[in-house]
Amino acid sequence: MRTKEIKDKDFESILRTELEGINDLELMILKGHILIEYSLNKFIDDINEGNLDIDKTNFNFSSKIRIAEFLGLFKKKDHLKESIDDINKLRNQIAHQLKYDEKLMQKIIALYLKLNIPGSRISKEKNDIENFYFIIIVNCGLIMGKKLGQQKIKNFTTNTLQNLRSQNPKKFDLDFKNFNNQKTENE
Predict the structure, then answer these.
(1) What angle separates helix 8-19 from helix 25-47, to the nearest 10 degrees?
(2) Does residue 133 lie within any of the structural domains?
(3) Are residues 143 and 73 in contact, defined by beta-carbon separation less than 8 angstroms?
(4) What single DSSP character describes residue 105?
C-alpha cells in the first residue's frame, strides 16, 4: 500500500471524512482497517526516519504490527494492540469468508466500553457502527499521538539501530528474525 503523504494536522479531518456516512458495518471495518494501516505506516516511517521505507516492502499487516511494537507503539497500551489485532481478524474474515464474527465485534466494543476513554464517545447507547466509527478514530489517534511523542526519541532509536546493524549486520538480521519468530509463536 503506497502511503499518501498527509500532513498530521489534516489526518483527523480526512479520517472523519472517510468514515462519515457509512451505514454498512463491513465497509466500516474495511475502511477502518485501511486507515489504521495508514497510521501504522506513518508511525513506522516517521519513527525510523525513512530508513525502512514501509511502502517499498512486502510486509503484511501483522508484520507491521510487530515492527510498530518493536518501535514502542504498544508500551502501556496493550488494549491498542489487542484491538488492532482483532480488527485485522475482522477484515480477514470479510476478505476470505465474506462475513465477520459478531462476537469478535462485540469483544472489541466491550473492551473500549470497559476502558471508558475520556472523549472517545463510545457508549452502550450507540449502535455497533457508531461505536466502531469512534473506535477507529481512537485507535488512529493513539497511533498518531504516540508517533508525535516518539519523534522526540526517534533520533536516538534510529541511530542505535543503525549502529547495531552496521557493527554486525548478520547478528542484527538474525536477532530481528528471532524476535519476529518469537512473536509469531506466542500469538
Answers:
(1) 170
(2) yes
(3) yes
(4) H
Residue position matching grid coordinates 526519541: 153
Domain with 98 in it:
10-152
Helix axes 169-186, 154-167, angle to 10 degrees: 120
**How far, in Å, CA of 15 to CA of 150, rounded?**
21
Does a structural domain hold residue 3? Answer: no
Place of cell 466494543: 109
Decide if 92 is inside a domain.
yes
Nearest to 133 by CA among 143, 121, 142, 118: 121
Mind listing the pLDDT tens digit for each residue in 93-110?
A: 999 999 999 999 999 999
Q: Is residue 132 part of a domain?
A: yes
Other beta carbons within 10 angstroms of residue 125's beta carbon come to: 6
Confidence (pTM):
0.75
